[in-house]
Amino acid sequence: MSGLIAKNLPRFHHVAPQATFIWDPSHFNRKSYATVSKPSAPARKNIVYVDGVRTPFLLSNTDYSKLIAHDLARETLVNLQKKTGIPKDAIDYVIYGTVMQEVRTSNIAREAALAAGYSEHTPAHTVTMACISSNVALTTGIGLIHSGIYDTIVAGGVEFMSDIPIRHSRAMRSLMLRANKAKTPMQKLALLATIRPGHFVPDLPAVAEFSTNETMGHSGDRLAAAFKVSREEQDEYALRSHTLAAQAHQNGHFTDMVPFVVPGVKNAVDKDNGIRVSTKEQLAKLKPAFVKPYGTVTAANASFLTDGASAGLIMTEEKAKQLGLKPKAYLREFTYVSQDPKDQLLLGPAYAIPKVLEKAGLSLKDIGVWEVHEAFAAQILANLKALDSEFFAKTYLKRQQKVGVPDLKKWNAWGGSLSIGHPFAATGVRLATHTANRLIKEDQQFGLIAACAAGGQGVGMIMERHPDAKI
What we know:
Strands 1, 2, 3, 4, 5, 6, 7, 8, 9 and 10 form a ten-stranded mixed sheet that branches. The chain is built from 15 helices and ten strands. It is of the alpha/beta class and 471 residues long. The protein has a domain at 47-164 and 303-465: Peroxisomal Thiolase, Chain A, domain 1 (3-Layer(aba) Sandwich). The N and C termini lie far apart (56 Å). Helix 7 (216-226) crosses helix 12 (377-387).
């Protein structure tokens, strides 16, 4: 113990006992739990990812614009049950992530599960952790299964940016609450007389970090400058994402996507509508979206506001066998990280990747599938440069040598959030399902999921292909 710490510790002096207390078990009627006598904790259960589904991801204010988040979440729950064939009453628990919460369905997991016809006896709760909310839904499910409480859990996420909650100003809200309590017409008229123009200015959802008051786009621009990521590099990466996503659509790889029949829309929605393969020349013409006129983040190399939902089925391997299900992958390890929300807001993957690899006892070369959330092209490229930096490794990761650069041929091979779309809380499960499906199609053993999130947080997850896996 260091001298500094020792000096601050309180000094305890030995005091001779004045009386002796004799423990007599007969004084108490106690029962011991069976686990107390066990010499060691039971082995961890194998938890499997059976399958996942999602709605098509759409640009906000397009074909989903007249719906609400509840509609999208319900649709994924209905289709997950149909796709897997699991009896609804075999589902022990439902967990959903969401960021922009709809007030009428604040616990959207429960409301969507009821609307999807799941048993009324199936508990459900909703979580939030910005862009990694459905990762939290998944890992919360993992924890509940490891604890032995449940065997079968549905985890998902939903985001609906076409109709975000906008409140009256605080002054107006206060006045309305007081008016609701007013007992006489005169009292109500007196309150109405206090209304001023400022009362009608709406209270919009924040687009900036609460702790720093900086938008994520500004953070992306500063990160690009710090890691010397050029505008050309960002546009090239964005073009790569859209090109690979378009190819994945054409090749039928998005088997997780379920067509959605939207009331009032002529044809079923059966594809993501944000994928646009452009040219370098066209991308170069776009003006900076945040730091003007010198910034490098544009509408084309940033993810867009998206509506969508996703859901995945996880359970113990033993339960899957009992139900006759063929899992796609094992859920092996996960970790969460957090760092400075100002200068390192988007560097979650650079911290999470080496940490989760170490937990799993794996190296970069062991990973055959990489699925990493693309908030901005600048963010992805800055994280790759951080992983390949000796300075970053020694200064921030406290490692003796750099992590290195993953094999980019295995990196987001079906595109990513820049092209497919990014409904905040739905992306994590989309990443998990794409990882599982790619492990099978590309004949790989291990896949790694990583993502950044608001607040300077991030996640890393390891999945392993299951021997019985089939698309």
